């Protein structure tokens, strides 16, 4: 993959662009004009962190940065062999962009979405070539987390799935697992009910946020407690995934807690807004 496109330069898109550029590809990130500077800074800060921690040399960081261009012009993705979409979790927005992308890129380019909760087939069906559309679900922070879930649909070509999984493993250095196009895929279908159980425990006054988190860190050896993890993932993302699980399976066990909804309404989305279950 010499030319890779990324749509959205937020938390995930910036991380994906960084990882792809560090692996040697030329990356074009499509972002809204008013958010281009923020996306650039996100990438620069993350590369600087990698250099500071000794995970990356200064020269490699500079070379990776030089391979990334951020623009608001979608047509710059025309020669991409792979495009990874990481826009906000809004189905109409993603559908609109998949339809546009399908017209712009060559018919054998692969179109991937990083969605956490929208059925991938709905984005595939917005294109004339659904056989080249699949999910490439990265984890936050992308440069640090080892996993990519490769999400298949009922229409995707096996060769496309294999090509993307091989690229993620051999070029990006990630581990891959393959999931069907079901709400939550593998990881979130297991993780989100755990996180919402912790929110309910806190909501009912059963225990403090600190004690719930300490319980799982010191009692189970988890690197982070569930409420701090909600803050890290983003409460809006947790809510979107919980809603998609509830819609898909209809099991009350998946229903998002009222407190989660109200915190999202209040704009307490976790680390990214400076306040969630904790203050940052
Ligand atoms: P974010 O809100 O940090 O980033 C979204 C970016 O898209 C923003 O920079 C925004 O300016 C940009 N954008 C909005 N409209 C645009 C447009 N018309 N054209 C180009 N760019 C546009 O969101 P985040 O957290 O990066 O999530 C992105 C996707 O990744 C979502 O689908 C989410 O479900 C998924 N995801 C998120 C994870 C997380 O931990 N945050 C983990 C795995 C997947």
TrEMBL record:
Q: Name one Pfam family in it.
A: 3HCDH_N
Span of domain 3-hydroxyacyl-CoA dehydrogenase NAD binding? 3-181
The beginning of the lineage is:
Bacteria, Bacillati, Actinomycetota, Actinomycetes, Mycobacteriales
Q: What is this protein called?
A: 3-hydroxybutyryl-CoA dehydrogenase
The site feature described as Important for catalytic activity is recorded at 137
Instruction: Tell me which family the UniProt entry assigns to this protein.
Output: Belongs to the 3-hydroxyacyl-CoA dehydrogenase family.
Tagged with keyword Oxidoreductase: yes
Q: Tell me one GO biological process term.
A: fatty acid beta-oxidation
- Metabolic or biological pathway, per its Swiss-Prot or TrEMBL entry: Lipid metabolism; butanoate metabolism
Enumerate the spans annotated as 3-hydroxyacyl-CoA dehydrogenase C-terminal domain: 184-280
Looking at the keywords, is Transcription present?
no
* InterPro entries named in the record: 3-OHacyl-CoA_DH, 3-OHacyl-CoA_DH_NAD-bd, 3HC_DH_C, 6-PGluconate_DH-like_C_sf, 6PGD_dom2, NAD(P)-bd_dom_sf
What superkingdom does the record give? Bacteria
Q: Which keywords annotate this record?
A: Oxidoreductase
Question: Which GO MF terms does the UniProt record name?
Answer: 3-hydroxybutyryl-CoA dehydrogenase activity; NAD+ binding
């Amino acid at each position: 993959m010499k030319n890779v496109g990324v749509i959205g330069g937020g938390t995930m898109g910036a991380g994906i662009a960084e990882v792809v550029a560090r692996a040697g590809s030329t990356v074009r990130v499509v972002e809204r004009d008013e958010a281009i500077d923020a996306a650039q800074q996100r990438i620069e800060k993350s590369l600087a962190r990698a250099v500071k921690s000794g995970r990356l040399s200064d020269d490699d960081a500079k070379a990776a940065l030089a391979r990334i261009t951020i623009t608001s012009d979608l047509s710059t993705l025309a020669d991409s062999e792979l495009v990874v979409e990481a826009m906000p979790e809004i189905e109409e927005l993603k559908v609109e962009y998949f339809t546009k992308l399908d017209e712009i890129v060559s018919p054998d380019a692969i179109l991937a979405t990083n969605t956490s909760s929208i059925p991938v087939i709905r984005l595939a069906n917005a294109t004339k070539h659904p056989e080249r559309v699949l999910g490439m679900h990265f984890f936050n922070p992308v440069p640090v987390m080892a996993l990519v879930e490769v999400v298949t649909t009922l229409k995707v070509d096996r060769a496309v799935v294999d090509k993307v999984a091989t690229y993620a493993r051999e070029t990006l250095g990630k581990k891959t697992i393959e999931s069907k196009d079901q709400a939550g895929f593998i990881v979130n279908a297991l993780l989100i009910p755990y996180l919402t159980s912790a929110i309910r425990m806190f909501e009912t006054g059963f225990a403090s946020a600190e004690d719930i988190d300490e319980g799982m860190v010191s009692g189970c050896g988890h690197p982070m407690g569930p409420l701090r993890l909600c803050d890290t993932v983003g409460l809006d993302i947790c809510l979107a995934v919980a809603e998609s699980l509830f819609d898909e399976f209809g099991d009350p066990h998946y229903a998002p807690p009222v407190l989660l909804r109200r915190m999202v309404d209040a704009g307490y989305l976790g680390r990214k807004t400076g306040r969630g279950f904790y203050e940052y």
